[in-house]
Design a protein that fits this description.
heterodimer, A: 125 residues, mainly alpha, 4 helices, B: mainly alpha, two-stranded antiparallel ribbon, 13 helices
Chain lengths: 125, 387
């Protein structure tokens, strides 16, 4: 049953191996003459002011949180979509039932979405 | 089992090499097509028509000096290109690229790993690429790189929702997440681009955003962020980010061909998917698959030299306020139509049903174009700040 995953594991080994090989080989093949200027952060020639590890906009966190919520909704939709067409034929629930069920789910999701929009979570400026 | 292992390893080596070579040629194709569109010649000195240019570039990148920024977080900095590179080359594994090949030991399906999770695998693995990008941006300790990394991750996760939702529409008709089944269903009835046109458009836009291509290339907007998350990377590590980006493009194109354009299906004939498999069928379907993928890759490059870049708030507004709700509404409408045709009238998915769905899509498409948001949600260049 897990046999189809075997080629995936081999491919993973090949891809990761190539990645490591590229980094290691170029590490040894290339010359290295570091200077102070080369090791400085590149900011278009300006002397860098302070560290880059500064605060950044909270919006990015908000987007990440909303992503998790909506991505889970997508994941919920996928099994529904898979059985929608053939469900009744293979002993699953009837198509009309599946449709109504998912409409209820989508309406709830949409209420949440409208709330998020009205609270200004999607505003970006 | 031995046959399975040997055939798998051969397929892996061939596909891996094909993607690497394809990516190399794609970098050349991009530069040549760009030159052609701008009425220049482009790189044509190394080898015939510049065909050896990618090899020269690769060799040069191997031998270039690597700089490590003094402030960088060393191990994360070194690891990030690998984290971006590996998933990019893994995603192609589940895409079937030709009709099964008959050999004297048995039938070989022309897909690296025909996983039962199929499409979900692509969603899962392709999102892992975000880690490489955000870690590259953070570990460089460069303000531009950090901003580029943040922008890239926010953009990729935003458009992933629209992308996932648009593929749910495909699942409605295909009834299976395995991509070989998706192709079989399209051979039976008709390509999903006809029956699910709007889903394809949403998928296409999201794919542009997911691969950080213009008009959504804000993570590496040269004018604002130097080179974005890979500003501090040089030599081979820089190359690895490039290979990752281009192989993501190849995978996205192949995925669009598979989900909406019938994969390796040869149009207007059932010769390729009925009857006994033969070597000729495998070769011809492989060619057809390559043509479809190539057409999408050309479209990518074409769009790059046609459309200007979005502003970041426009990009986020397009993803969250336009694509997401419209895909939800579209999904609802399509599910209802499919229920009426299949559950109520009892049609199976064949030509007439595909055409009927196509007509429904046309109506929706006209309605969508009619109601196209003209600066109401995605604010135009002169934003309404006066109020």
């Amino acid at each position: 049953m897990l046999q189809p995953y075997l080629p995936f594991l081999i491919l993973l080994a090949v891809a990761a191996g190539t990645a490591v090989m590229m980094i290691v080989l170029s590490h040894f093949a290339a010359p290295r003459r570091p200077t102070h200027a080369k090791a400085a952060p590149y900011e278009s020639g300006m002397p860098p002011l302070g560290s880059a590890r500064e605060r950044f906009s909270i919006k990015f966190y908000l987007v990440a949180m909303l992503f998790i919520l909506f991505d889970i909704e997508t994941v919920f939709l996928i099994p529904w979509g898979t059985i929608f067409f053939t469900g009744a034929g293979t002993g699953g629930p009837a198509m009309g039932f599946l449709l109504i069920e998912m409409l209820v789910f989508l309406v709830i999701l949409f209420v949440g979405y409208v709330y998020v929009w009205k609270r200004g979570a999607l505003k970006w400026d | 089992m031995t046959f399975f292992l040997v055939s798998s390893i051969i397929k892996i080596v061939v596909v891996f090499t094909a993607i690497m070579v394809g990516v190399a040629l794609l970098t050349l194709a991009e530069r040549r097509i760009c030159a052609w569109m701008q009425d220049r010649l482009g790189p044509n000195r190394v080898g015939p028509q510049g065909l050896l240019q990618p090899a020269a570039d690769g060799l040069k990148n191997f031998l270039k000096e690597e700089t490590y920024p003094a402030q960088a977080d060393f191990w994360t900095f070194v690891l990030a290109p690998a984290l971006s590179f590996t998933p990019a080359l893994l995603t192609f594994a589940v895409i079937p690229f030709a009709a099964p090949l008959p050999t004297q030991w048995g039938l070989v399906p022309m897909v690296v790993a025909d996983l039962p999770v199929g499409f979900l695998y692509i969603l899962a693995i392709s999102s892992l690429g975000v880690y490489g990008i955000v870690l590259a941006g953070w570990s460089s300790n460069n303000k531009y790189a950090l901003l580029g990394g943040l922008r890239a991750s926010a953009q990729m996760i935003s458009y992933e929702i629209a992308m996932g939702m648009s593929t749910v529409a495909v699942l409605l008709l295909a009834g299976n997440v395995t991509l070989s089944q998706v192709i079989a269903q399209q051979q039976q009835g008709g390509w999903f681009v006809i029956s699910l046109t709007l889903a394809f458009l949403v998928f296409f836009i999201s794919a542009l955003a997911e691969t950080n291509r213009l008009p959504f290339d804000l993570p590496e907007a040269e004018g604002e962020l130097i080179a974005g998350y890979h500003t501090e990377y040089s030599a081979m590590k820089f190359s690895m980010f490039y290979i990752a980006e281009y192989s993501n493009m190849v995978t996205a194109s192949a995925l669009m061909a598979t989900l909406f354009f019938g994969g390796w299906d040869i149009p207007f004939t059932h010769w390729d998917d009925t009857g006994d498999p033969s070597v000729l069928k495998t070769l011809l379907t492989l060619v057809v698959f390559c043509i479809k993928t190539g057409a999408f890759l050309f479209t990518y490059i074409w769009i790059r030299w046609t459309l200007p870049r979005f502003r970041y708030d426009q990009l986020m507004a397009l993803g969250w306020k336009v694509l997401l709700p419209s895909t939800l509404v579209y999904l609802t409408i399509m599910a209802t139509v499919i229920w009426y045709l299949h559950g109520h009238l009892g049609w199976a998915y064949d030509r007439p049903m595909a055409l009927t769905l196509g007509a429904a899509n046309l109506v929706l498409l006209v309605a969508a174009v009619w109601g196209l948001d003209r600066g109401r949600i995605v604010s135009g260049s002169v934003a309404r700040r006066a109020a």
